[in-house]
Amino acid sequence: MPDSAPRLSLIEADLFERPTHFRLPFRFGAVTVTEAPQAFVRTRIRLADGTEAVGQAAELMVPKWFDKNPALSNADNFNQLRQSLRIARDHLLAAGKQTAFGLSATVELAHHAACAKAGLGGLIASFGLALLDRAILDALCRAHGMTATAALQKNLPGLDARTTPDLLGFDLTGFLAARTPAASIGMRHTVGMIDAITEAEKPADGPQDGLPNSLEGAIAAYGHRYFKIKLSGKADADLDRLVRIAALLDTLPEYRLTLDGNEQFPDAEAVIALWEKIEAEPRLARFRQAILFLEQPIARAQALAAPIHALAQRVSVEIDESDGEMGAFAAAKTLGYTGISSKSCKGFYRAVLNRARVQQWGRGFFMSAEDLTTQGGIAVQQDLLLAALIGAEHVERNGHHYVDGMSGASAAEQTAYLAHHPDLYTATADGRARIAIHNGAVSLASVLAAPGLGVAVEADWAALSPLAG
Q: Which residues make Cβ contacts (< 8 Å) with residue 132, sequence separation at least 6?
């Protein structure tokens, strides 16, 4: 491990939540989400010299993504994620004095094992550890008065290859020192399964809040050039919907897109059948040329059970829901997958190390930046920061579309974000903060300049409720 990385211990970790209500129903895979709680973590760390610092993290607890078992209710899914947070907290509080990355690496296997014993899958286990890791790293950066970029370039967290033995011999120090995030990033707009495509299709009883309620409206409002389109796994229905979407996108001077299978296909052969229909449809000619990659089409129980080389010859394929632990990308590589998603809910360190793998493996391998309806404030800023640090040119962003601004945040908190991050947010007539998207992109200037993990505002802890359960 890097000798210069400071040692620290976690001495306090408090868990909170607040409700989030959606302005539009979000349909992905087999579920439609209309509300979910957002989890908040506050940590206190102590360095070897006795210095203490506080850090924070937040993430939406989205149902039916971490665990898609239809027998479980949304409330069951929320409780799974709460349990993961508590298990991660207990492990990290007991881990003693380590580097920031060392704390995570030391407890990772035991944490995942404890979660598995409780019936919690890898993505659920990752959620709890990911939030605690981010809050600890945020505190470490603040203790040193450093931005996340400077901290990563100097390897302040002490990243090494102990959890990724395939990276032994890779110049991780040089890789980290070269992290130079851009000052802005493109926003890839999500098209959910039940989203209106044109203005004429939007429901008459939809929200009247001045925000777009259709794909056409979002393009007009934000100038989007990147898109992510959800698939249902039903070839004929998907084809019809893609043709209707292409008719709108083809009116743009230029566009690029990704397709998200959301585990709706039983095997690679079913995906190939859809792809052949896409190739045979002349109305999708330009649309097909604009496709960058296909995200996790096969259900996680089967995704890494068989090679997908025949599919990969047609389109680049990445894993997302199958990324439940550090070895997943290396395993997927042997089967024909060439990409993996970055999501802050899966782990900051995992994303950085997977990006190092992309560089080590070379041409043809890639990493994308995906969303899990991250909300304005801490969650979206930490996720945007991570996307910038891995060098993503665009990031899927949908929290601002399905939720009206910082849903549930106090007026004082929203005012603080508008003051400290004026490039990232814009104010409504009544003073609420919303993401400011111009020409399909957002500014990262204030996020990159903030000490810690990209957030210059402390959560309004008094306005939050203790984690339920």
A: 10, 13, 41, 43, 57, 85, 88, 89, 92
Cα–Cα dist 445/385, whole Å: 10
Helix (H) or strand (E) holding 421: none
pLDDT at 3: 63
Helix (H) or strand (E) run with residue 230 in it: strand 226-230
Residues 6+ apart with CB under 8 A from 233: 261, 264, 265, 270, 297
Nearest to 350 by CA among 338, 340, 364, 359: 340
Cα–Cα distance for residue pair 342/372, rounded to 1 Å = 11
- The 3-state DSSP class for residue 259 equals strand
Residue 2 pLDDT: 62
The values of phi and psi at residue 342, to 5°, are -105, 125
Q: Where are the beta strands (DSSP E) in 79-154?
A: none
| Single pTM value for the model | 0.97
Q: Torsion angle, CA of 339/345/349/352, rounded to 10 degrees? A: 30
CA 177/CA 149 separation, integer angstroms: 9
Q: Is 243 helix (H, G, I), strand (E, B) or coil?
A: helix
Residues in a beta bridge with 39: 17, 59
User: Is the pLDDT reported for residue 1 higher than 60?
Assistant: no
| Tens-digit pLDDT profile for residues 181-213 | 999 999 999 999 999 999 999 988 899 999 999
8 A C-beta contact, residue 315 and residue 291: yes
452 contacts 187 by C-beta, under 8 angstroms = no
Structure tokens at 283: 């109305």
DSSP state of 30: T
Is the pLDDT reported for residue 355 higher than 70? Answer: yes
Give the rounded percent of residues in the chain with a pLDDT score beyond 90. 96
Q: Distance between CA atoms of 106 and 99, rounded to whole angstroms?
A: 10
One-letter amino acid of 313: Q
Instruction: Quote the CA–CA distance of 244 and 238 in Å, as a whole number.
Output: 10
CA distances (Å), 379 to each of 66, 78, 157, 468, in order?
A: 17, 17, 20, 19
Dihedral sign computed on CA atoms, order 73, 265, 347, 38: negative
- The amino acid that residue 46 corresponds to is R
Structure letter (DSSP) for residue 312 = H
Could you give the maximum distance between any two Cα atoms of the chain, in Å?
A: 67
> How is residue 417 written in tokens?
């974000």
Q: Six-digit token pair at 296?
A: 């996790």
